[in-house]
Write a structure and sequence with these properties.
The structure is a single chain. Helix 1 crosses helix 3, helix 10 packs across helix 11 and helix 11 crosses helix 13. The chain is an alpha/beta fold. The longest helix has 25 residues. A hairpin with a 2-residue loop joins strand 10 and strand 11. It contains 15 helices and 14 strands. The protein has two domains: 146 residues, ATPase, nucleotide binding domain (Nucleotidyltransferase, domain 5, 2-Layer Sandwich); 187 residues, 2-Layer Sandwich (Nucleotidyltransferase, domain 5). The protein has an eight-stranded mixed sheet, sandwiched between helices. A six-stranded mixed sheet has the order 11-10-9-12-14-13, with helices on both faces. The structure holds adenosine-5'-diphosphate. The site of adenosine-5'-diphosphate (ADP) has 13 residues, from helix 10 and helix 12. Adenosine-5'-diphosphate binds next to helix 10 and helix 12.
Length: 400
């Protein structure tokens, strides 16, 4: 049984076709620059060469057509006909307080996703467009939406509320939602499996550190706190996002640096973070490469690791101890220096890293627990697409 996992952005569409019998990717690809004259689609059947299709794809509909044509093509395709796609799982960024888990796509669900666009303007509108395009092309195939926010819906009110007038929460639904939920959930489940325990018995801290980063505290299978907030800007400083800053910085930069209201989102999301501090790059590889000669690159890395350490310490207090600290995503899986720096001098909190084993280790599931550590330390590679496919399968199993 094959499940097509789709992640639609405003001008892009990424996808994976996953064989659920073996949980392996049969083909994957991405369409970029949808709506622009130089739109393209890169298609990669597993074990074979990548194929490039040039657009134009005026809308997501033409992009979806190109994807389906490639998948079912008689020469380069991986399926004989579209009937071999049993379901489609769509990744959705914002599910608000409405979606506490995945949902089967209906007209009402699409409208609800659109209604939540005020909380994630760029993403949710694009997701709705993508779902409609897929439904047009695959009218008889069941579809499921899986939300980045759902896994965090178990947070208690005192963790998700902001200190602003309560009416703003009531009217505007302004609160912490948290993101990367699908990744945190996948990694938490896998960690429980590695530990031979049920997730419901464990206290975990998952560090999803990538271009976007978030840390989540999980108690007995339920998220009790996470670093991202109403939007993915909150929490850790990231590749180009500022992370949590004193809110008064914003009117200050508007007044003193001429940042206009309409430029604020771009400023906070694209001009700050590792890039803004280092002036070198948002990419951790570039920063690690020059940190001994470039003091601002060193500073950006020090800031990132220090902030992560503070969140972990805070979450250990909130959880009253942990069973495991887990690293995942681009930086968490590959940047062993970052893992070492974050966990350095944490023995008081019961965390000791096996530095020898950690050094040089990339993207390989590993137990990195050092001698004398009270908590386990793991590297667990994430797989959001597989998690979406699993949730999709579970949902259609329920319905059909
Ligand atoms: P996204 O948040 O876009 O999904 P990823 O989780 O893919 O990001 O992480 C991408 C980031 O991971 C890159 O910007 C880079 O900084 C970091 N990264 C990837 N590989 C390495 C590596 N070998 N060493 C250090 N950092 C790496």
């Amino acid at each position: 049984m094959n499940i097509l996992v789709i992640n639609c952005g405003s001008s892009s569409l990424k996808y994976q076709l996953i064989d659920m019998d073996t949980e392996s990717v049969i083909a994957k690809g991405n369409c970029e620059k949808i709506g622009l004259p130089d739109a393209f689609h890169k298609y990669k059947p597993t074990g074979k060469d990548e194929v490039l299709f040039n657009g134009p794809f005026p809308t997501h509909l033409e992009a979806v057509e190109s994807v389906l044509n490639a998948l079912a093509d008689s020469k380069i395709g991986v399926i004989k006909s579209l009937d071999e796609i049993s379901a489609v799982g769509h990744r959705i960024v914002q599910g608000g307080s409405i979606f506490k888990g995945p949902a089967i796509v209906t007209d009402e669900v699409i409208e609800q996703i659109e209604d939540l666009a005020s909380l994630a303007p760029l993403h949710n509108k694009a997701h709705a467009i993508g779902i409609r395009a897929c439904r047009k092309e695959l009218p008889d195939v069941p579809m499921v939406v899986v939300f980045d926010t759902s896994f965090h819906q178990t947070m208690p009110d005192y963790a998700y509320m902001y200190g602003i007038p309560y009416e703003m929460y009531e009217k505007g639904k302004i609160r912490r939602y948290g993101f990367h939920g699908t990744s945190h959930h996948y990694v938490a489940l896998r960690t429980a499996e590695i530990m031979g325990k049920d997730l419901s018995e464990l206290k975990l801290i998952i560090c999803h550190l990538g271009n976007g980063s978030s840390i989540t505290a999980i108690k007995n299978g339920k998220v009790i706190d996470t670093t991202m907030g109403l939007t993915p800007l909150d929490g850790l400083m990231m590749g180009t996002r500022c992370g949590a800053i004193d809110p008064a910085v914003i009117p200050f930069v508007m007044e003193n640096f001429g940042v206009k209201p309409e430029e604020l989102n771009d400023f906070m999301n694209k001009k700050c973070g590792m890039q803004g501090i280092s002036g070198v790059s948002s990419d951790f590889r570039d920063l690690q490469a020059v940190k001994h000669e470039n003091d601002r690159a060193r500073l950006a890395l020090d800031m990132f690791c220090y902030q992560a350490k503070k969140y972990i310490g805070g979450f250990i207090a909130a959880l009253n101890g942990i069973d495991a600290l887990v690293f995942t995503a681009g930086v968490g899986e590959n940047d062993y220096d970052v893992r070492e720096q974050i966990t350095d001098d944490m023995d008081y909190l019961g965390i000791v890293l096996n530095k020898e084993k950690n050094h040089g280790l990339k993207a390989k599931e590993s137990d990195l627990t050092g001698e004398g550590s009270k908590a386990k330390v793991y590297l667990v590679p994430t797989n959001e697409e597989l998690m979406i496919a699993r949730e999709t399968l579970q949902m259609i199993g329920k319905k059909y």
